[in-house]
């Protein structure tokens, strides 16, 4: 399981549309993370559990906006060596997001289309746990109301012998 200090970086609220959602195909960069944290008056500390809200899950469940949802174009983190280095330097153990892959599924890197390039860089190379499809809209609204974007976070997976993935039961305590 996972337990520690969680931080919500609500990029959808600060860069998104009137529903606080990033447009399909949008990249979330290291600069977006730092700028959003600064606007939220949030200090991201070493070993924080990083939660990224793009608004993608809200779009999926919104009948009026659902036609704009597509798994391959969901907004998410975009690869950069600076982002990977920052995650490594900050010793971020877990990144959770409200989309299907944490990152934008297909990205243009050095003239080539790459599919989920951060998965290898983060999971394989750094040991970062990526966890997806979080409903972060209620937490984001609550955090925007009280100004508190850090909290105790825990996520307990199913206990499965030999398993390599599992649904989790995430919980935030502010």
Characterize this entry briefly.
With about 170 residues, the chain is an alpha/beta fold. It has helices spanning about 10-15, 30-40, 55-60, 80-90, 115-125, 135-145; strands at about 1-10, 25-30, 50, 75, 95, 105-110, 110-115, 130, 150-155, 170-174.
Notable traits:
alpha/beta, 174 residues, globular, 29% helix
Main beta-sheet annotation: 6 strands, mixed
Structural class: alpha/beta
SSE order: EHEHEHEHEEEHEHEE
Which spans of ≥5 residues are poorly predicted at pLDDT below 50?
none
Overall pLDDT: 94
Shape: globular
Rounded to an integer, what's the Rg over CA atoms?
A: 15 Å
Q: From the structure provided, what is the oligomeric state, counting identical versus distinct chains?
A: single chain
Give the helix/strand layout.
Layout: E1 2-9, H1 11-15, E2 27-28, H2 30-39, E3 49-52, H3 56-61, E4 76-77, H4 81-89, E5 94-97, E6 106-109, E7 112-115, H5 117-126, E8 129-131, H6 137-146, E9 150-157, E10 168-173
Parallel strand pairs: 1-3, 2-4, 3-5, 5-8
Antiparallel strand pairs: 1-9, 6-7, 9-10
